[in-house]
Amino acid sequence: MASEFDLIARYFTRSAPAGLLGVGDDCALFPVPPGEQVATSTDLLLEGRHFFPDVDPKALGHKALAVNLSDLAAMGARPIGCVLGLALPRLDEPWLAAFADGFHALAAVHGCPLIGGDTTRSAHDLAISVTVFGAVPAGAALRRDGARADDDIWVSGELGAADVAYRLLDGQYPADAARLAATRGALEWPEPQVALGLALRGTAHAAIDISDGLLQDLGHILAASRVGAVLREDRMPVAAALAGMPADPVRRAVLGGGDVYQLCFTAPAARRDAVLAAAQAVGARVTRVGRIVAQPGLAVLDADGQALAQLPAGFDHFPAA
Ligand code: ADP
Ligand code: MG
């Protein structure tokens, strides 16, 4: 029977890059370059709430880190390292091996080594907590409070696929194997836009990653920046995998769907070429979907220029009513 320490040694210990102290001591150590700030963020993932109990463990390892790297991306921060808290209801080594594979593979892609954590037994469900650390030149982070009237509003990638995959897996939509096959990757294997976030430093005024739905997450930028927005529904980069679906679920997925892990950001209209150049340099797709206005509030115009009377709600763990 493997002990806690065997598990840590087997699945979570990798040699740390030079200059870092990784797994094995009471704390990890990493240097912070002079003139830079540490950016840090934590996400907690719970079985049954953030992932289905039977999800592919390799995908889960990937996603547990991806959602955190997405927060660094949204700030324009460069990853340094991460720590992993695991509460395990049972000792399932093939599961752990696959989870660790998915986690370490994404960590390697982004130069974000696992440098510490904690492992305990859980009386009930599986819980996964990841904390990332990044670095950003002091004062250069992309924050939520920097949007200004007349900025363009941009989103990266495509919207809507993760929401449709989730609702199919959750049984809210009738089974559709082809649609699930086309959308599932977006839900289970999100690609955090770290390179784009870095490339947008000095150009974007404000940024956020889309975790709870475009309207809700853009709403956080609007509140922090004390401005409003007008979005154009006909400009939205609707995921190709949604082709042929009825208008209502598409609208709900594109405007309200969560788990996207793309960036929503604002930039001055005079910097359109700089935004496109930044995106092209990192191979990202970006789409201009609206404009920031001085008057607080959020309007979405349809193809005829009419404001939608009802907007889909984003995800909220503690809805008011
Ligand atoms: P402590 O008793 O000081 O909390 P632990 O025995 O919990 O130390 O952990 C031993 C070492 O293993 C520490 O360096 C810790 O950061 C690391 N560690 C524990 N669990 C994990 C994990 N899930 N992933 C990465 N490192 C881990
Ligand atoms: Mg411990």
Automatic annotation (TrEMBL):
Chain positions recorded as Mg(2+) 2 binding sites: 43, 71
Keyword Transcription annotated: no
Keyword entries, A-Z: ATP-binding, Kinase, Magnesium, Metal-binding, Nucleotide-binding, Thiamine biosynthesis, Transferase
Residues noted as binding Mg(2+) 4 in the record, renumbered to the chain: 26, 41, 71
List of residues binding ATP: 117-118, 144, 211
Residue stretches making up the PurM-like C-terminal domain: 187-300
Residues holding Mg(2+) 5: 212
Residue numbers binding Mg(2+) 3: 26, 71, 209
SUPFAM superfamilies, sorted: PurM C-terminal domain-like (SSF56042), PurM N-terminal domain-like (SSF55326)
Top-level EC class as recorded in UniProt: transferase
Record's catalysed reaction(s): thiamine phosphate + ATP = thiamine diphosphate + ADP
Pathway membership: Cofactor biosynthesis; thiamine diphosphate biosynthesis; thiamine diphosphate from thiamine phosphate: step 1/1
Ligand binding (substrate): 50, 259, 315
Gene Ontology MF: a single term: thiamine-phosphate kinase activity
Additional remark text: Reaction mechanism of ThiL seems to utilize a direct, inline transfer of the gamma-phosphate of ATP to TMP rather than a phosphorylated enzyme intermediate.
Job of this protein: Catalyzes the ATP-dependent phosphorylation of thiamine-monophosphate (TMP) to form thiamine-pyrophosphate (TPP), the active form of vitamin B1.
Family: Belongs to the thiamine-monophosphate kinase family.
HAMAP family: TMP_kinase (MF_02128)
Name listed for the protein in its UniProt record: Thiamine-monophosphate kinase
UniProt organism field: Achromobacter insuavis
